[in-house]
Write a structure and sequence with these properties.
Strands 1, 2, 3, 4, 5, 6 and 7 form a seven-stranded mixed sheet that branches. Strand 4 (82-95) and strand 5 form a beta hairpin. The longest helix has 21 residues, at 3-23. 31% of the residues lie in helices and 43% in strands. With 129 residues, it is an alpha+beta fold. It has helices spanning 3-23, 28-32, 51-64; strands at 41-44, 47-49, 65-78, 82-95, 100-103, 105-112, 118-125. The N and C termini lie far apart (38 Å). The protein is built from three helices and seven strands, in the order H-H-E-E-H-E-E-E-E-E. 14% of the residues are buried.
Length: 129
């Protein structure tokens, strides 16, 4: 297996594990271990977060929603200092009142190549039309 094939397999497995943890409401410490920690940048539409903000967001998601991420596509690329994992997903959830919610973002995870930890987690809304 060549290096890019290994990187692609790693990136795809990493992304699936990331969302398995989020959907399964894993303890935040399990997600935090996959990141660079305090240097993490979370770039949600109209809601940029640092590590502390990400932890608060995650706690609220676990408390207020029950949902699942459906991964439609994954593209893994390499840069000089990063492994970039781009995906198209759909998040389907219900809030505590039982109301259905559906979001369709494109998501980018940027991992430091040296320690394979997330330093950037960004979402951009994707048109479904």
């Amino acid at each position: 297996m060549n290096n890019m094939t290994e990187t692609t397999a790693f990136g795809e497995a990493f992304l699936r594990d990331w969302y398995r943890k989020i959907d399964g409401k894993a303890p935040f410490s399990e997600l935090a271990r996959l990141t660079v920690g305090e240097g993490l940048v979370v770039d949600f539409p109209n809601n940029p977060l640092d590590m502390a903000g990400f932890e608060r967001w995650y706690a609220a998601q676990c408390r207020d929603f029950c949902g699942e991420h459906c991964i439609h596509s994954i593209k893994v690329t390499e840069e000089a200092d990063a492994i970039v994992i781009f995906s198209e997903i759909t998040w389907r959830a219900k809030n505590k009142a039982g109301e259905a919610i559906e979001l369709t973002p494109n998501v980018t995870l940027r991992l430091d190549r040296a320690n394979r930890a997330v330093f950037y987690y960004g979402c951009v809304d994707r048109s479904t039309k």
